[in-house]
């Protein structure tokens, strides 16, 4: 049977995590490098005791909010293209539930994060314990069961020996390109400290080989047939292309066949913006160039994308009746979407194979690609130079698009990693951000989770300490969750946080007003005593001063000159920085021949709402049904 080592569950868990490696294309990489957590009572004396020891190589990061810690771990894994990851631990009850949102974010975005929530006593002797949720009809159900709905794999270790099968299955999923996401292993607090004689084989170094799934001869033949039958093919660059490291193959494929491509949020930036076939973002937050050609396309090559409603404009964008879809994806679940011809294989290998097997083919787009790209480039230049009137106080204001232009074109290093994730900023960035260096565009938009941005920036900086990491957030996202700014200060990990303050949730206010509803509940205004509504004086916040209270450097800007000076100081700083930039409300970019289906009220006392519902129904009729 071999030798054994007598360890607690917590100690065995730490030793196991410390010995996990991945290998891809011949390169071996240490997979688990650390753990984020908050040591509540349900974890501190069990797993916490093991982490406190000095006999392992895992670094512990003290989160300030469990969700923030988990988002930092996700940001770390995402920026490392899923080849490195971290775990996240918490107490039971509130601490565990604080991580559920982050688990959903990781699963939707297919990013490996190991969640280790504390749990109620398996022995039940002291029940109900502090922070235990009791469900009278099912006593096996605890707060940790909430992770079931948002985890790719879920388990609970009720006996020490169960840890072995639980962790083998956990890493089966975490290292699978098609299945990865949040993995939850719930740890009852008594079991964490219980002892067992673990086989040395279980604790030894383990290398998980990430094999590229090779496309079959039949798959390539069917794809070539579809390609050669198409006159106007268009490719969608999804996150799977980035995780497959398929940037060069994408360039070669598009140049060989004269095929344009639009970028999803996750697939943006694997090829520089000025590539002649790169039309920037596609879909509801896409560019004029991508959306125009998407409507004409007779073949859509959905490469590594989950075809979310923002990418497809709620299945409305591909309006050519003859349009077919080829789904290239390692995940069959995604490859079959929208009645596509599924090609379930690695994107890098697939694009290379198509270049070889479809030799001689060339699309009929002709000069149309350059025409729409040039028109879009001129529009971006206009937005980058946009001037807007001063605010009500007579002081200058910047437009949101102008700030992005200044940062992108003039102020930030071209290899700076830029992070965002919610509100109107991702919409603008998908359209107008010009990526010069690959893998520097870091956007969480699968879940569009407010509060991801600052924590994820910390995760990026931990993974890439020699790069500037800049997160661009709205005031809404900043107030939602900025606790890990303190962790960045504590760790000495400099991040630059650019807060675009337009005094409200204006992304949603725009959506609300576009459907005929009066401005309600989204602008940051004080309550008016007469009306009883939030329509009084504006709420003014000094985010720079807030940052200073955390120990960061606080800077302010209301003009291009002030922004340039603030960024100069931020780049020179050795500690975390927050730049408070006052921007005009409604100065984000508008839509570009896009549409999005929302649940507009069909009956209302407001005639504008009913009219909006009629327009919505008319557009729904144009969309694909499945």
Descriptive account of the structure:
This protein is α/β, with parallel strands linked by helices and 626 residues long. The protein has three domains: 4-209, Thiamin diphosphate (ThDP)-binding fold, Pyr/PP domains (Rossmann fold); 217-371, TPP-binding domain (Rossmann fold, 3-Layer(aba) Sandwich), CATH 3.40.50; 385-503 and 540-582, Rossmann fold (3-Layer(aba) Sandwich). The chain is built from 24 helices and 23 strands. Helix 8 packs across helix 14 (347-357), helix 16 (400-411) packs across helix 17 and helix 16 (400-411) packs across helix 23. The longest helix has 17 residues, at 368-384. The model has no long low-confidence stretch (mean pLDDT 96).
The CATH class assignment of the largest domain is Alpha Beta
Total individual domains: 3
> What coarse outline follows from CA principal-axis ratios?
globular
The CATH superfamily of the largest domain is known as Thiamin diphosphate (ThDP)-binding fold, Pyr/PP domains
Average pLDDT works out at 96
Structural class by helix and strand composition: alpha/beta
| Contiguous helical run count | 24
CATH architecture of the largest domain: 3-Layer(aba) Sandwich
Main sheet: strand order? 5-4-6-7-9-8
Radius of gyration: 25 Å
By DSSP, the count of extended strands is 23
| Portion in helices | 25-40%
Unreliable parts: none
Main sheet record: 6 strands, parallel
């Amino acid at each position: 049977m071999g030798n054994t080592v007598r360890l607690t569950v917590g100690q065995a868990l730490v030793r196991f995590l410390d010995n996990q490696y991945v290998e891809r294309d011949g390169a071996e990489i240490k997979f688990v490098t650390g753990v984020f957590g908050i040591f509540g009572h349900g974890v501190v004396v069990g797993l916490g005791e093991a982490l406190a020891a000095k006999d392992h190589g895992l670094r512990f990061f003290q989160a300030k909010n469990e969700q923030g810690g988990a988002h930092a771990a996700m940001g770390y894994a995402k920026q490392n293209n899923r080849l490195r990851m971290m775990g996240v631990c918490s107490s039971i009850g509130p601490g565990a539930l604080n991580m559920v949102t982050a688990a959903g974010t990781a699963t939707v975005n297919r990013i490996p994060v190991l969640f280790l929530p504390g749990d109620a006593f398996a022995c039940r002797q002291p029940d109900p314990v502090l922070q235990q949720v009791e469900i009278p009809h099912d006593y096996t159900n605890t707060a940790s069961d909430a992770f079931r709905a948002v985890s790719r794999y879920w388990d609970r270790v009720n006996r020490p020996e169960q840890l072995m099968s639980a962790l083998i299955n956990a890493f089966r999923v975490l290292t699978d390109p098609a299945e990865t996401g949040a993995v939850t292993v719930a740890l009852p607090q008594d079991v964490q400290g219980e002892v067992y004689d673990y086989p040395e084989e279980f604790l030894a170094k383990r290398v998980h080989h990430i094999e590229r799934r090779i496309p079959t001869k039949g798959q390539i033949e069917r794809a070539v047939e579809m390609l050669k039958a198409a006159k106007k093919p268009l490719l969608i660059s999804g996150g799977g292309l980035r995780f497959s490291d398929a940037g060069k193959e994408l360039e070669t494929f598009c140049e060989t066949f004269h095929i344009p491509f639009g970028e999803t949020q996750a697939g943006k930036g694997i090829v520089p913006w000025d590539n002649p076939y790169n039309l920037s973002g596609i879909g509801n937050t896409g560019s004029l160039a991508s959306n125009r050609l998407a409507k004409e396309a007779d073949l859509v090559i959905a490469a590594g994308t989950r075809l979310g409603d923002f990418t497809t404009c709620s299945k409305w964008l591909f309006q050519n009746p003859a349009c077919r879809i080829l789904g290239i994806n390692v995940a069959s679940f995604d490859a079959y979407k929208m009645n596509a011809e599924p090609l379930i294989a690695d994107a890098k290998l697939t694009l290379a194979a198509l270049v070889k097997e479809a030799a001689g083919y060339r699309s009929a787009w002709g000069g149309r690609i350059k025409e729409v790209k040039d028109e879009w480039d001129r529009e971006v230049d206009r937005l980058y130079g946009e001037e807007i009137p001063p605010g009500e106080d007579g002081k200058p204001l910047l437009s949101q698009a102008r700030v992005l232009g200044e940062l992108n074109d003039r102020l930030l290093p071209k290899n700076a990693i830029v992070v965002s994730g919610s509100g109107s900023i991702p919409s603008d960035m998908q359209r107008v951000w010009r990526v010069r260096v690959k893998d520097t565009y870091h956007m969480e938009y699968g879940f569009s989770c407010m509060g991801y941005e600052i924590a994820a920036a910390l995760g990026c900086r931990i993974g890439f300490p020699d790069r500037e990491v800049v997160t661009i957030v709205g005031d809404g996202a900043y107030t939602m969750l900025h606790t890990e700014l303190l962790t960045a200060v504590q760790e000495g990990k400099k991040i630059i946080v650019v807060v675009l303050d337009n005094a409200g949730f204006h992304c949603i206010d725009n959506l609300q007003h576009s459907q005929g509803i009066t401005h309600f509940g989204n602008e940051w205004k004080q309550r008016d005593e007469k009306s009883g509504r939030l329509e009084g004086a504006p709420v003014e916040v000094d985010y720079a001063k807030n940052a200073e209270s955390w120990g960061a450097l606080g800077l302010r800007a209301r003009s291009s000159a002030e922004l340039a000076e603030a960024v100069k100081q931020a780049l020179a700083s050795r500690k975390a920085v927050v730049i408070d930039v006052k921007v005009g409300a409604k100065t984000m970019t508008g839509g570009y021949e896009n549409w999005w289906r929302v649940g507009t009220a069909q009956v209302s006392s407001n005639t504008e709402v009913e009219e909006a519902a009629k327009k919505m129904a008319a557009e729904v009729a144009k969309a694909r049904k499945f």
